[in-house]
Amino acid sequence: xxxxxxxxxxxxxxxxxxxxxxxxxxxxxxxxxxxxxxxxxxxxxxxxxxxxxxxxxxxxxxxxxxxxxxxxxxxxxxxxxxxxxxxxxxxxxxxxxxxxxxxxxxxxxxxxxxxxxxxxxxxxxxxxxxxxxxxxxxxxxxxxxxxxxxxxxxxxxxxxxxxxxxxxxxxxxxxxxxxxxxxxxxxxxxxxxxxxxxxxxxxxxxxxxxxxxxxxxxxxxxxxxxxxxxxxxxxxxxxxxxxxxxxxxxxxxxxx
Amino acid sequence: xxxxxxxxxxxxxxxxxxxxxxxxxxxxxxxxxxxxxxxxxxxxxxxxxxxxxxxxxxxxxxxxxxxxxxxxxxxxxxxxxxxxxxxxxxxxxxxxxxxxxxxxxxxxxxxxxxxxxxxxxxxxxxxxxxxxxxxxxxxxxxxxxxxxxxxxxxxxxxxxxxxxxxxxxxxxxxxxxxxxxxxxxxxxxxxxxxxxxxxxxxxxxxxxxxxxxxxxxxxxxxxxxxxxxxxxxxxxxxxxxxxxxxxxxxxxxxxxxxxxxxxxxxxxxxxxxxxxxxxxxxxxxxxxxxxxxxxxxxxxxxxxxxxxxxxxxxxxxxxxxxxxxxxxxx
Lengths: 256, 330
Fold this sequence. Notes:
Chain A has helices spanning 42-50, 71-75, 93-99, 113-125, 141-154, 171-188, 199-205, 223-226, 229-236, and strands spanning 2-13, 16-27, 31-35, 56-61, 64-65, 78-81, 159-163, 191-195, 208-213, 216-221, 240-243, 251-254. Chain A is an alpha/beta fold. Chain A has 2 domains: 2-77 and 157-254, 3-Layer(aba) Sandwich (Rossmann fold); 89-156, no CATH class.
């Protein structure tokens, strides 16, 4: 089932074009990695899809034009995790998770039974139940990122847009995060769109890769098709080599 | 709900104690005249305290700045200057219109000061916390200077002030000679504004996040900011119009409340308001009982300044120390 359809998106800051006619789609249960160098328009694209920026082109979530979604309704369907999410230093993990229920709160911010039970389920699912009373600034980077994923999940979304969620994580936590996203896609059939700089991690975990170069979508396909040495050399501006492996996917690495 | 009730009980307890504190003697006032006067004063002090604390909670949340409060942002200063101007130029107005005129003048002053402060501290759409406070304090100082200038220009003319002395809008004090209309107008505005703020309390929690995150959680953050900033300034203006600018209540109370109930605005708003009400009622009682030492009653603004100023410095120092630690550890 297609969750998102976007056609010929254009965006520019003043006269500086950021995106030129980008079209993409996202289906339920699919993990899509959004790759491209710094300044290629990854973050801008995600913000356009959420309606935080207004550009040209058509965006449809579940077949309904983005402009016809109310902020609140869209927040119940689509969750967003920015590159460096904000948190109050004295905020507990539980409070952070509960914020994810904001699109469901009634007047005066009153919480329902369901709000409470959803937060409890998610904390168990992500193994956060023992950390609920800890303060956010006491957590390790990996734990904190899991709490933020939990906040997104509390929105009970059908799609998650994540902007470089791996940035501050060590190798093990990067792999764990990707496994978690893959599991969420499979088990809850959430569509995941994730901007990333790690080509091989994206290759290992994504069902599909979108490659942006100077505001143009230069590739959209299976990891094996997109991660080509000549294409990546052109896009990233460094010589790249593709190393085939007897088992598993090929690796792409820059040659110094 | 429970939080609201407990806060209410706390305030009621403190208020009851305050009734026993008089100008000269302690104990339950026997004469109904004195009892009435004391009850009115306590009610006004509580009202003003609650309003300032609620405004403080709101400013801190929506400006994402733990040091924001109506007095330091210049909102109180602007409101008191305009209220003073209204009081000076009043006299021609019908008596029932006077409190309304004073309230709206205070409101205009509050909004104007806030607008100036936000404009001047705006750097490419971002509000720098420290710049914001600097500009606020300076706007406050300018308002105070203009106030004194007008006062001295009017010295020769026979200006009668409806209530309170000429300085009542410079150093905040709970006046005992307010008209019932004045109190009723202020109470009405503050109660309504407080209700609106509580209505948006949940969304204010989300406003503590970045703009993009708040939007992604379904909160129309720009609209929210406008609404609550205007409402908070409105209740500040209503409070200032009856009491003059009383500093630091809006700073101290939210922080003390935060230590107890955490940063959830839905709980913070009622608790901080109760603290504000109790603190100001108490401070007013203390200044009343201290009036035997001073010539005439001590303005309560003097006390809150003595209490709140050092507290502000402590917060500033604590914050700098913490960010320095964070820098050195990362």
